[in-house]
Specification:
This protein has about 525 residues and is an alpha+beta fold. The chain has three domains: about 1-95, no CATH class; about 100-280, MFS general substrate transporter like domains (Growth Hormone, Chain: A), CATH 1.20.1250; about 310-510, Up-down Bundle (Growth Hormone, Chain: A), CATH 1.20.1250.20. The chain is about 65% helix and about 10% strand. The protein contains 21 helices and eight strands. The protein has helices at about 95-115, 125, 130-135, 140-155, 160-170, 170-190, 195-210, 210-220, 225-235, 240-255, 260-280, 295-300, 315-320, 325-350, 355-385, 390-405, 410-415, 415-435, 440-450, 455-485, 485-505; strands at about 1-5, 10-15, 20-25, 45-50, 55, 65-70, 80-85, 90-95. A five-stranded antiparallel beta sheet has the order 2-3-6-4-5, with no helix packed on it. A three-stranded antiparallel beta sheet has the order 1-8-7. Helix 6 (about 170-190) runs antiparallel to helix 8 (about 210-220) and helix 6 runs antiparallel to helix 11 (about 260-280). The chain starts with a strand and ends in a 21-residue tail after the last helix.
């Protein structure tokens, strides 16, 4: 339902009894404030020129106006105010909180399914690697090169592909990437030349490079800062769900259909998910993109509630965003720790403590389970106590992680129960920073520097790309240290990397992320 109202200050009560206020606030020329109130609150602003005409951002050389900010109580309605052609009029379009919640849940479910489906073009090869090697007569080194081709293009592509998503549309890049990856998997079973297979798998890695950061970009505007961590924490578990489901499906198909279909059939799930994503409406109906004047932007560059005027921001400018480099270094260290333990724990347990391969594999699942819980917990706690300074929570997690890794070998010598408890704790502590650094921390960093959605894909890609480089390097690093100096030296190295992450994450925290006038409203945060 929409009703026309005159743009004047005032107070009132929503239909459910929750109070609201409407204030006229001076703003810089052509700038529209976007803020949120308390938990569950949304606001929307329009600019009203001095002559009384309501517009979304003033025209060419219009005079400074006022921003009409609508704020509802925590149980109030979700309101969007936008300009209407009649002078001195503002159209109010109301979104009941129940409707907002429904749209958010549907979008989160769609993003979860899409992200999970991405693993159906990544994981099956690891399951069928031995049959492929035997059938095609490859050496272990050749199989390693095929894996490396994917990892290399995936890591380097994250510095390039998300920027393409910022320009042509995040959804378009994800959908095209899913189609290309599916084609690569289908072609994998039709050729036998090692270098051709390597080329297809490298293309698959490049097509998937933008998936994670662009999912972050699409999901981010659906939630205010106080809800973002929980939503991203839930979404991040799609990695474990997708990887597990893809592994189980590929293993089943291997026994009944052979290795070729074990790669091709799971890829069809990715294609199906890309098709569904193509028809999803991923633009929140309560947000509109407004183009701001460059002069107004320069006057308010440091404000977190102002979007840049230009949709094109250069790569070097994004790289120069304050504290972004510290996030990159943090993610590099955390990824080395997480992936070293993820890939080498079963081998370590079977070699050092003489567990059977099956038992060691089952034991390592505790690490994954702890990771799922850790990602969720980090998001929920971050929303409640660390809005705008989530990296402080990450630093706390890494501090505890340092001690947990340092004592893991001692726990292993104390029996299976102590081993499982500490292993689950390590998974819990490392997954939180891992999920946060590539998503909500990047969004906070960009907003606090005065940027919005137009740079989030590229910024998330840069940070995730640095993390992916760490994930690639961990294999050689782990083998080198474990073989030359022993497993004890490896765990000391991982503990040192965790300790370094404490420093870098504290350095990436903005001590002035809330301006004095916004501290009065505990829930006032950027919503762009």
């Amino acid at each position: 339902m929409t009703t026309g109202t005159t743009a004047r200050a005032g107070r009132g009560t929503a239909r459910d009894g929750a109070p609201w206020t409407r204030e006229l606030m001076p703003v810089s020329e052509g700038v529209v404030r976007r803020r949120t109130g308390g938990r569950g609150t949304r606001t929307r602003a329009v600019t009203v020129a001095d002559d009384g005409e309501a517009t979304e951002g003033l025209g060419d050389d219009g005079e400074a106006g006022h921003a009409v900010v609508y704020t509802f109580g925590s149980e109030g309605e979700f309101l969007r105010a936008r300009a209407n052609k009649p002078r001195s009029r503002v159209v109010e379009e109301k979104f009941p909180r129940e409707e907002v919640g429904r749209l958010q849940r549907n979008t989160l479910a769609g993003m979860f399914a899409s992200s999970s489906a991405a693993y159906f073009v990544r994981k099956p090869l690891s399951v069928v690697k031995a049959p492929v090697k035997d059938a095609l007569g490859f050496t272990t080194g050749t199989m390693g090169l095929i894996d490396s081709a994917f990892l290399l293009t995936y890591a380097l592509g994250q510095f390039v592909m998300p920027a393409l998503g910022d320009r042509v549309g995040a959804k378009n890049v994800i959908v095209v990437g899913g189609v290309v990856s599916c084609a690569c998997c289908c072609m994998f079973g039709l050729v036998s030349a090692p270098y051709v297979l390597m080329a297809f798998w490298a293309l698959n890695g490049l097509a998937q490079a933008a998936s994670y950061p662009l999912h972050v970009k699409l999901l981010n505007p659906w939630y205010a800062a106080r809800e973002r961590g929980t939503a991203m924490g839930i979404w991040a578990t799609s990695q474990q769900v997708g990887a597990t489901a893809a592994t189980v499906l590929a293993a089943y198909l291997l026994g009944s259909c052979g290795w070729k279909l074990s790669i091709a059939i799971p890829a069809l799930f990715t294609l199906f998910a890309a098709g569904l994503l193509a028809f999803m409406n991923l633009d929140p109906p309560w947000l509109q993109t407004t183009t701001y004047k460059e002069e107004a932007l320069q006057k308010t560059k440091k404000r977190a509630d102002v979007e840049p005027a230009s949709k094109h921001v250069s790569f070097m400018e994004i790289l120069a965003i304050p504290r972004l480099k510290m996030l990159m270094l943090s993610y590099f260290c955390v990824k080395i720790v997480r992936y070293c333990l993820l890939f080498w724990l079963p081998y370590f347990l079977s070699q050092e403590y003489k567990m059977s391969v099956a038992v060691a594999g089952y034991m390592s699942c505790i690490y994954d389970l702890g990771g799922v819980l850790g990602g969720l917990a980090c998001g929920i706690i971050g929303d409640k106590y660390f809005v705008g300074k989530r990296t402080m929570l990450g630093a706390l997690s890494c501090a505890l992680l340092t001690f947990a890794i340092g004592g893991y070998q001692l726990a292993c010598s104390m029996g299976m129960l102590a081993n499982a408890i500490v292993m689950g704790l390590i998974g819990f502590l490392v997954a939180g920073p891992d999920a946060m650094l590539g998503s909500t921390a990047v969004a906070d960093c960009c907003e606090q520097a005065g940027y919005g959605q137009e740079v989030l894909g590229t910024a998330a890609g840069i940070v995730n790309g640095m993390g992916s480089i760490g994930a690639v390097l961990q294999g050689a690093l782990t083998a080198l240290i474990a073989e030359k100096y022993g497993w004890g030296a490896l765990f000391v190295t991982l503990a040192m990397l965790s300790a370094l992450s404490i420093v870098t994450m504290l350095a990436s925290t903005n001590p002035q992320f809330v301006e004095p006038e916004e501290k009065e409203d505990e829930g006032a945060v950027a919503f762009a």
